[in-house]
Structures are given as C-alpha cells and as structure tokens.
Amino acid sequence: MSQAPMSRPSRSGPLARPSLRPPRTRPKVLLVRQPVRSVGPDAESLSAFRTLLIGVIIAAGTAIGLWIFGLLGYTIGYAPAVRLPGLTCDTGLAMSAALRAVMSTPELVLEAGVQETGWMMLGFILIALPAAGLSAIRPFPPGGPKPPATAEVFSWAGAFAAMIAAVLMLAWINAGDRTARLIDIPALAAETPTWLTGLRVAAGLDALAVIAITLWAILTMRLVIPTWLRALSASFAFPTLILMAMAFAQSAVTATQVALPRSVCFMNVAPTEPQWRLIIGRSDSRLATLIRGNEQVIVELRDAETVLYAYERRSIPMFLTSAGSDDE
Fold first, then answer.
1. Which end of the chain has fewer CB within 10 Å, C or N?
2. What pLDDT, on the 0 to 100 scale, is given for residue 8?
3. pLDDT above 70 for 28
4. In angstroms, how far is CA 75 from the centroid of its own chain?
C-alpha cells in the first residue's frame, strides 16, 4: 500500500513559529557640519601670532594697571599723609610703589589678622562664600537642558548676596575704623610707630575686601539668573570693585612708602637748627625733607641745589623715634 505524503503545516497556521527578527527600520544619520580647518604652515604661524598678541596685550594691560595703581596710591595716599599733596610721582616711582605694595600684601594681611581678628574672620567669610559658589554652580548654555530648581534658587540667593556684599564694601571704605587709621603723619614723633601700625592694618583689611569683591563680581557672571538680575547685581559688584581697588591703593602704597628706608642726610646749618634730615620726596624743583625738632615732626621744603651728605637709610618712624642722629 502506498501512503500519501504528509503535508507540512502552513506557516500561517496555528503551529507557525513567531519571527524573532526585529522590524527593519532605516538608520538615522546625524550630519555635523564643521568649518574646514587648514593645518598648513600658514595656519600654525597665524595661531602662534594670535597667542603672542594675547600675551602682549595681557602684559601691557598689567603694566598699565600697576602704573595707575601706584600713581593713585602715591598721590591720594602717601603724599597727603606726609602733608605734601603736591609731591611729584613719575612713572618709575609709580611702578616701584605699586610693586612694593603688591609684594607686601601677604605681610599686611597677616599683621591685620594679628591686630584685628574679628575683621579678619569677617573678611575670610566674605571670601569663602563666593569661592564656594564658583565651585558649585556651573553655567547652563542657552537652549540646553533646563537647570534644576535648586540651582536657580541658590543663584537668586547668590545674586542678592553679591549686592549686599557690595554695599558692605562701600560702607567699609567710609567706615570710621578705617578712616581713623588713614590720617596724616602725627605732630609728635613718638606717635609715628602707632600710626604706621594703623596704616598696615587698614591696608591688610583692604586687601581682603578687594579679594572678596572680585570673587563676588565673577560669581554674578556665572549664576543661573535672568539677564535683568545679572545686570543689576553686576552694576553693584563691578563699580564697588573699582572703588575698593582705589582704596586699597591708597592704604597699601602709604603703608609701604612710610616703612620704606630712605636717605638720612646731614646738612651744615646754624647750630641752632637740626642738622639731620630725612628725604621723603620731591615737589617740583624742591626737596621734601623731614626733621625732628624738640620731639615735633616738621616737614621742610628746600631748593634742590642744597648740598646734603647722605649718612644712612632709615624709615620715617625709625628716623623720628631714634635716640637722635645729632648725637652720632
């Protein structure tokens, strides 16, 4: 007997196996268009020239900034402090005064911390807050993902905190505790060491204020806030930064110039007059000297043609409080 061949089940029947192949889809292609960059020798030389130009601009800006810093500090700080607002300050003197003030900043801050611990702690708090904000908040580009609500809340708080810090800095510039230290040279020679200590403390606190307001000004440009609030907070921070830098120039240059060793000269005059003088500057064609007479501080202007014999170098407080050069 012959058997009929068994029929295979249809694929569409109930015993058909499901297909395990994924559905075919067209692959998505992302096109990124970038400008063609030339890597030839001309492009490398152009890049090196741009880098050099940026370095030259930064160096020139730093030199001009130091010159302005020293000139302002000398004319609005040191010159009035020695009772001679018309003291001459040329370019070299302004640059050297600025460099001395900047290099002495760590020492001034340390002395301010020793003398005024409370003000020192407040200054470090005002520095730590924006420094923490700069490390915690990252900028969100426009059109990108929306920043979290926490970042927006802290950014708004940081903007108003920057405005409050700017107001505090402006109040410090005119505070009585600061202006009482930036006074003219005392009439009595014995008070000059205390006067110099006050100048150095004021300069150290001003340095902390400059660092703090600089960080607050940078923070206002990185916060996740609306444009109007950024402009408002920056209008508080950046003008305050300029004013605080001028105040620091006044106090720092005055403190460093007063403590700077200067030439002690001998002049052959009448026996009744003091013969030892300390050269403190130049006003037009006249020489500005300091005299200690009967424990009094006297500022004298003499013609530049006067013959003086340089003996040694002393700072203003050391010259005025010494046992007396006339006896040496």
1. N
2. 52
3. no
4. 20
Which residues contact residue 58 at a Cβ distance below 8 angstroms, ignoring those fewer than 6 apart?
A: none
pTM for this entry: 0.81
Whole-angstrom Cα distance, residue 247 to residue 101? 13
Residue 50 falls in which region: left (phi positive, over 0), alpha (psi -120 to 50) or beta: alpha
Q: How many residues does the chain have?
A: 328
Phi-psi sector, 219: left (phi>0), alpha (psi -120 to 50), beta: alpha
Residues 251, 197: Cα–Cα separation, whole Å: 12
Sign of CA dihedral 175, 181, 185, 187: positive
The tens digit of pLDDT for each residue in 112-166 reads: 999 999 999 999 999 999 999 888 877 666 666 777 788 888 889 999 999 999 9
| Strand order across the beta sheet in which 309-314 lies | 296-303, 286-293, 276-283, 262-266, 309-314
Amino acid identity, position 216:
W
What pLDDT, in 10s, does the model give residues 182-234?
Answer: 999 998 888 888 999 999 999 999 999 999 999 999 999 988 888 899 999 99
What residues contact residue 219 under an 8 Å CB cut-off, 6+ apart?
A: 130, 133, 134, 137, 158, 162
Q: What is the pLDDT of residues 264-279, one digit of tens each?
A: 988 766 655 667 889 9
Reference 208, options 181, 231, 178, 232; nearest CA is: 178
H/E element, 249: helix 227-258
What's the rounded Cα separation, in Å, for the pair 57 and 2? Answer: 104
- The pLDDT of residue 31 is 58
Got the DSSP string for 67-96?
HHHHHHHIIIIIHHHTT-TT----HHHHHH
Q: State the Cα–Cα distance between residues 86 and 74, nearest whole angstrom.
A: 10
Q: Look at residue 15 and give its three-state secondary structure.
A: coil
Helix (H) or strand (E) holding 252: helix 227-258
